[in-house]
Amino acid sequence: MKFSNWIKWSDRNKLEDLKYPGVYAISYNGHDVSNNSFDWIKEIIYVGMTNSKKGLERRLKQFDNTILGKKDQHGGAKRVRYKYNNYDKLIKCLYVAVVNGK
What's the topology of domain 7-100? Predict the structure, then answer.
């Protein structure tokens, strides 16, 4: 198994097989890294995993709800929101890569 390419946070639902459990990495980049191959870059601000039956899609939605300030469903996202408290600015620089347990 290997990570997907980096994709803009706003495009995360375009990733394949999000219904499965897996691992996800989130990076904050001032330049566009869409479609770049995954690498352990210094801009990674969070790495998480889920083994939920609802998979990565639900966990990424919980992360988004929390950074938006809508619901506190994700502890790691609460820390990200504390540091980057403007959702609209944050998601312009946020990217995600996933690897699923399919």
Answer: GIY-YIG endonuclease (3.40.1440)
